[in-house]
Amino acid sequence: MPKQKNTPKLRRVAVVEDNLGLREQLEGILKSAPGVCCVGMFSSGEEALKGMAAVQPDVILMDINLPGMSGIECVARLRKDISSAHVIMLTVYEDIERIFQALQAGADGYLVKSSPTEVLLRAIEDVYMGGSPMSSHIARMVVRQFRQSGPAKDETEGLSKREREVLNLLASGFIYKEIGDQLGIGATTVKTYVESICKKLHVRNRMEAVSRLNRK
Length: 216
Prior knowledge:
Layout: E1 11-16, H1 20-32, E2 36-42, H2 45-55, E3 59-63, H3 71-81, E4 86-91, H4 96-105, E5 109-112, H5 117-128, H6 136-149, H7 161-171, H8 176-183, H9 187-201, H10 206-211
Parallel strand pairs: 1-2, 1-3, 3-4, 4-5
Helix pairs in contact: 2-3, 3-4, 7-9, 8-9
């Protein structure tokens, strides 16, 4: 009998966005893109809290500026019900306070709404693989803030040369695939390095690891 090929798992994606036009645009992108499946569209945080558990998404695209309950509050509350879902904030806001509030609430990535379709789809795959995709200028803002308030001691001295290379690229805003392309390794290998980095630095995720980076 011919050997059956394993069908790649579709990334189940849900959207929380109050703007009807943008919501329909995102739905169209997700329904026409290979590798993803649109499982839910919600116009408010309150609506998302009621219906999100039923659709069990792998990735949630969350507007930060929702009517009523904010996207940040919605993320924090959803984390209690579907902790396995990865959340990417979609926003026109780029102030550092909102960014950190979203990350502290449990968001895994942060993209501006003007991001091209290919960037959005790449971010969905990256966050599903354990990454924290961010628009490059937002990533620079985060790193700049970490450096201003970061520790004087370089806490990354115990990392290997390759782990340090991966961490530096993470701090520059690159996603796993882009890091792999630059270093000549696969995205899964990059994920393994990130897991090792987090373990050595005693942190929970990529952004906390970046906060320990002290370039002199």
